[in-house]
Amino acid sequence: MTLDWTGRMDGGSPRSFPDELRDPFALDARSLLTSTTQIDPTLALLGQLRRHHGASADHSIRVARVLITMWRHAPERLGDPEPLLVGGALHDIGKLFIPASILGSDRKLDPTELELVRRHPETGAQVLRRLGFPPVVVAAARDHHERWEGGGYPSGVRSSSLHPLTRAVAVADAFVAMIEPGRAYRNPRDGQGALAEVAACRGTQFDPEAADILIASLGSKPRPAEDICAG
User: Fold this and answer.
1) Would you say residue 174 lies in a domain?
2) Which of 31, 44, 76, 230 is most buried, most CB within 10 Å of its CB?
């Protein structure tokens, strides 16, 4: 599969969301990203991811939604919302290159499959770099599985050395993964249970500041997990 800035695949015509005016996912994505200057290439890539594996695209929009909630709570600490939104929406774009049968598997993955999944941050970063996305968006795709104290992937570096946007994407990604359905390796948690896990892992897995922003932005007026996962 080859990709370019306009979302063309393998030299074909631009691919947009099917039936966009009637498609709730497309409407949600466009509404969320409407203020960004990179809306067209971002939507094109999200559309490709949705056709490849719908659950991964849904997850990406949920992560972007959580990130903008975090930004509204602490804009002075999270900076420009545009790269935050785009970085969240495209953090898993490397999953385009993982077979959908693996992404949707309800069994434990074998070592070869697991290694393929663990390559998606680097693959996604390569795609976004090639398409000219800003370095901070590229970094969000590459580094969102790194851990605060080190030992994550792909590089195992301490995420304390990484851009604050990447650290915010990491905690939002993990929180959404905890509460959304369809994860073969765990039952979904409720919103409060997921926030408690984020709190327990601040300073080890997660940037303490990013964890605190997420907890404060979602925990002050708790939202049921199904509200965050709607759509």
Assistant:
1) yes
2) 44
